[in-house]
Amino acid sequence: MKRNLSVAQGVAWRTLHNVFTNPSLVIPQLAFPLFFFTAFVGGLSRIHNVPGFHYAQGYTAFQFVFVLLQSAAFGGVFTGFGIARDFETGFARRLLLAAPHRTGIVIGYAVAALCRWLVTAIFLTVIAFAVGMKVGGSGIDLPALYVLAAIVNSAAVLWACGVAMRLRTMQAGPVMQMPVFLVLFFAPVYVPLNLLTGWIHGVALVNPLTRVLEAGRSFVAGSPAQVAAAYGAAFGLAVLFAWWAMRGLRKAEAAG
Amino acid sequence: MDHPNTIEAEKLVREFKKGPRAVDGIDLHVDAGEIYGFLGPNGAGKSTTVLMLTTLLPPTAGTARVGGYDVVHEGPQVRSRIGAALQEAALDGLMTGREHLRLQAALQALPRNERAARADELLERVGLTEAADRKVRGYSGGMKRRLDLAMALVHRPRILFLDEPTTGLDVQSRTALWSEVGRLAREDGVTVFLTTQYLEEADVLADRVGIIDHGHIVAEGTPDALKAEIGRPTVEATASGPDGRAELTEVLERFGTLVPSSRGVAVRLDAGEAGLADVVRALDAKGCSVANLELHQPSLDDVFLAKTGRSLEGHGGDASEPE
User: Fold this and answer.
1) ipTM of the predicted structure?
2) Which residues of chain B lie closer than 8 angstroms to A2, CB-CB?
């Protein structure tokens, strides 16, 4: 266990070191969520006046939850790009060779994804409060949202890790990104679930991220709802993709 | 239980999908503290063997034990006992040399309070102290190889795998690396498994040599023993004029077997070195005009030629092994 942790620490340190010492990696990580947040809140704020839209904290808080979860998911996927790059450049082989316990490699990437997302989350939260986001509820509600987003981040990086370790090329990028993109945007992004109609409503109903998004918004509103379903969905995805990532690791080992 | 620092393989096979058998049932035994040179041309199966012995590639069949541990079932134990510098020194261009060593120390779970001192010690040993805090993307090929070697040594492994460590290096870097590898084996007692396509490297460094061709080990032994097995020296004569070659061939073929020569006519002497005087007398009697006459002791290339029917010299170049 100690050796696994040491491997995880090494892999996480290296990933974070590379991200935070390279403006080309760190700036997009902060700029994209900020862009989405300002674009959605600024351009779509009148949706708050649509009949049936009853979200007391306003459209800024409504969109903040989505952008926070989106940044968590894409933070995981972007870390997956780095894993694929490591395989393409041969650096992953060095990790596989040097690490007596290889499970630590996957854990290390997941820890790095979480840490880099935390920086984005703090940045986004500061901006949201600066532009007047209103938060209801007790002191536990907002942290509950961050924990939920952290689980989403872990699920996303484990998904991307499994893909990267199977395909072992940067060309795997769209395979990692596209499903996450679809799951995110087939959830009630711009309006609450009750205002969606037609096929998109049907898809959103079965989309596990809908539960996560609705629960997240309820935390910010101070009236938690669907908490068990949201945590269950996020945790279930994380466990499923942990298995997927470990199977990917075994495939990478077998491929040499 | 104390595990030996040996490398053993029995009937080791690696077959790739839709490809040939890169390694076809090889047996190996490398003693503790020995430098074993694994010699062969590109595509012979050297790197595939190293990948299997270092747990990076599972064998299709056969067994291998490194440091007393099975490479398939006891991978973590094997990896904690070995160091390896593979053919491609895969380094992260965004990190410095010192950061690479720090990462390697973490991966090998070296105690935190030892990491900085160990990195300094290794950087000095491989001559990279001044470049330690520069990003690796600015390193030359030789510097990258030396950093790769330093990384392989971070956790003081008892068994070291070096896959073509000097390919593409200049003479100075090559000599420095040979000196360090020799020191590791003789002073620290490290077992070294070295693959190479350079005959001179195997001759200078290796206690024993295994020659691999098309996935099979075709010869094995100390360099001297292998050369003695071939036994007979070669005499090579170069004619003074353009028309003298046929005459030289006619004389020399009476003294042994003709072998390929790029400059003149060469023959492996049936009578060994003692036959040289007779060759000189015969050339003189025939009135041959000879510009140059050389006696060559058997080389590892002669061994390779004798075992495979092909010459290894000039076969490799700097290309990587396509496996």
Assistant:
1) 0.88
2) 109
